[in-house]
Amino acid sequence: MKKACITGITGQDGSYIAEFLLSRGVEVHGIIRRASTFNTARIDHIYADPHDPHARLFLHYGDLSDSEQISNLIHNLKPDAVFHLGAQSHVRVSFDIPEYTGNTTGLGTTRILEAIRRSGKSIRFYQASSSEMFGSSPPPQNENTPFKPRSPYAVAKVYSYWMTVNYREGYKLFASNGILFNHESPRRGETFVTRKTTMAVANILAGTQAALFLGNLDAKRDWGYAPEYVEAMWKILQLEKPGDFVLGTGEVHSVKEFVEQAFSYVGLDHEKYIKIDPRYFRPTETGELVADPKKAREKIGWAPKIKFNDLVKIMVDADLRKRGLEPPGEGDKIMQSRFPNRWWKVD
């Protein structure tokens, strides 16, 4: 792979896969939306002036709702691979803007697949599918578990999943789905419950926040560490044949456990700060999501090194540093011991 295109490059996963590909000598082209404010903070540390003869990261304006624009980009760039990570990715928000979610998260995938098909080029395609697709199906969930989506976001992702399969079978495209369970990091969006929690811990210690407002504390998820998951994306596209893969740790923990771990790590009693706000509850709740990643372990040799407790410490340490506070440092030690030669910069 010499050249790759990434949708959603400014997001958590997009920034990590861009950094990973650059470390492998791949020329990276990212598609970003035009905005009146800068939204490239996650990739600023790897971006260089495109006029620099050594530059290997290039950004292009594009929109998943514009098929002509997407088609032109694929035609002009002629990438060896497309990592399709762009979406309206917030589950709770998808209930408020279901049509927009379907247009970008669902139909956006079709527009890219059709652009690849029409290009006539041999382009490998990775679709960022989601554990939310399993919805109310009982755990553990694997590649054969029925999809029972419980949100507009999940419904749109199921559509994208099957379009990827259909283009693979109907047009013989190298098109694969990575069904990723929750994966977090210090680059996680600030409105997602994990990052919202670790930021609150730092802000409370800094004296700038009095309480943390959350919704369903009983929601149970399989949480892993994002940089490890983007390595799996790469491995999926290195296989001889395309396929679909569940990626997760195989462990389940509740939102309440995450909150308790984050607060207790710095000596705070979470019960003094947590407030329940009905606005953060979903109209329909997803069931317990726990991955069965056996196929990924056997086919691509992937197994995560970071589990739940380590993840919490890594994220809290990072947010404390961003607030100018001295972290306990256990998360930093975990990083140093598990990833002595890591390809991503410390967050």
Unreliable runs, pLDDT <50, ≥5 residues? none
Proper CATH architecture of the largest domain? 3-Layer(aba) Sandwich
> What is the C-alpha radius of gyration, as a whole number of Å?
20 Å
Listing every helix as H and every strand as E from the N terminus to the C terminus, the arrangement reads EHEEHEHHEHEEHEEEHEEHEHHH
Whole-number mean pLDDT: 96
Note the main sheet: 7 strands, parallel
User: How do the strands line up in the largest sheet?
Assistant: 3-2-1-4-5-6-11
Class per helix and strand makeup: alpha/beta
- Whole-Å distance between the termini? 27 Å
Total DSSP E strands: 13
User: Helicity level, as a percent range?
Assistant: 40-55%
* Beta-strand share of residues: 5-15%
Word description of this protein:
It is built from eleven helices and 13 strands. The model has no long low-confidence stretch (mean pLDDT 96). It folds into two domains: 206 residues, Rossmann fold (3-Layer(aba) Sandwich); 104 residues, UDP-galactose 4-epimerase, domain 1. The two termini are 27 Å apart. Helix content is 40%, strand content 15%. Helix 5 links the parallel strand 5 and strand 6. The chain is globular. The protein has 347 residues and is α/β, with parallel strands linked by helices.
